[in-house]
Amino acid sequence: MSTYNHLSAPGESAADSEYDSSSYTTSLTSSKTAYQYQHGRRYHAYQSGRYDLPNDELEQQRLELQYHALRLAFGDKLFFAPIGDKPTKVLDVGTGTGIWAIDVAESLPDTQVTGTDLSPIQPNWVPPNCSFEVDDAEQLWTFPVEHFDLVHTRIMNAFVQDWDRLFEQSFRHLKPGGWMECQELSVAVHSDDGTLSEDSYVRRWCNNEEAAWNKIGLSVNLEGKELQTRMEKAGFVNTTVQIFKLPIGTWPADSKLKEIGAIQLVAMLEGLEGLTIAPWVRHLGWKEEDVGSFIEKVKNEWKDKNIHTHFPLWVCYPHGRSR
Description:
disordered N terminus; single chain; 34% helix
């Protein structure tokens, strides 16, 4: 795991560090670093309104908890694509807190890892082979063509409106023999043993989430088959699709799944407001106080050990250009 994540040194500013803002490959102008505040939360200012989730400390904690749950679910793998022993350049699209990019940079010290995101919330102290850019991945990419060995995304379904364009740009900017990897979660929770009723608050939350994101041309219920189809439409070949289960809660009998579920439960309990408040108020017309009351009922169900739910999680990695 990353030793750089959220490090700070008493009495030392970012300007004093050898890993200071020079690690960022874009100039962070005021339009990109200024924030907007709504619904009691902080949101990105660059390309304002493109993304309905907050970027404040609470949301960053949720993202990092979710990251650790996924690392456990993946058997500590950072990626599955067989990119070889000596990749030179990796791109992390929608890097969030930057923790995945930092961990990859640490594990592959000879590889230049670039992370892009709408929010400049990544730490200043990062490995020298890791850098971040404030950028909108749905706009025209300015990277050189045939540049990367791996293009990686993780849980971008609440951001990407045009997956075809994203895959087309990824394909164009991959080197011959390069790989794409998408790790995507569906918000449509499953219950294999039927312990989650159709009229439960959890189920209703899932349905409302999809309805809210649909209003702005997004879906939070993408599945592996759809991702594979869109990837291959862009020119990718030989797509491998793997499915995992991300339990929510400590109900699993298996000790590893129990640990994963415990972490994911905390992520959901602490992050549920941020996942809900803006989409429901902005796109479904809910009042903030009604959202707050509803999500408390959702939390109570997820804390119930008699209700056994999990998020389906897909990892899709196709081959790009032929060598």
